C-alpha cells in the first residue's frame, strides 16, 4: 500500500499487511478482494491476479514466520 499514513503528521509510508495461518484446513478457499481506495472511496480493480496451479501454504504458517520474513 503506497502513501499509508499511520499517525497524523508523521508522513506517508509504504505499508504491507500479512496474515499468518496457525494450522492448515483440509480444504483451503482463497478469496481475493481486489479493491483500491481513492479519495475515501473503494474502487474495484479489474487487473488479473495470476494464481499458480500449485500453492505452498507452508510459506504462510505462523511457525515459519521468522524464517519467511528473513528470506523476504
Condensed summary:
With 72 residues, this protein is mostly loops. The protein has one helix and two strands.
Polypeptide structure, described:
- This protein is mostly loops and 72 residues long.
- Helices cover 10% and strands 11% of the residues.
- The chain has one helix and two strands.
- It has one helix spanning 65-71; strands at 35-38, 41-44.
- The chain has a two-stranded antiparallel ribbon with strand order 1-2.
- The longest helix is centred in the C-terminal third of the chain and has 7 residues, at 65-71.
- The chain is extended and about 40 Å long.
- The chain starts with 34 loop residues before the first strand and ends with a helix.
- The mean pLDDT is 83.
Comma- or semicolon-separated keywords:
72 residues; little secondary structure; two-stranded antiparallel ribbon; 1 helix
Mean pLDDT: 83
Low-confidence stretches: none
Adjacency order of strands in the biggest sheet: 1-2
Count the helices. How many? Answer: 1
Structural class category: little secondary structure
C-alpha end-to-end distance: 17 Å
Main sheet attributes: strand count, strand direction, barrel closure: 2 strands, antiparallel
Rg from Cα? 16 Å
Q: Give the percentage of residues in beta strands.
A: 5-15%
Order of helices and strands: EEH
Work out the number of β strands.
2
Give the % helix.
Answer: under 10%
Shape: extended
Amino acid at each position: 500500500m503506497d502513501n499509508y499514513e499511520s499517525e497524523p503528521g508523521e508522513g506517508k509510508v509504504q505499508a504491507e499487511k500479512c496474515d499468518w495461518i496457525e494450522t492448515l484446513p483440509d480444504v483451503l478457499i482463497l478469496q481475493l478482494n481486489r479493491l483500491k481506495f481513492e479519495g475515501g472511496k473503494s474502487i474495484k480493480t479489474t487487473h488479473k491476479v495470476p494464481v499458480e496451479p500449485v500453492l505452498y501454504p507452508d510459506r504462510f504458517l505462523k511457525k515459519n514466520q521468522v524464517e519467511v520474513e528473513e528470506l523476504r
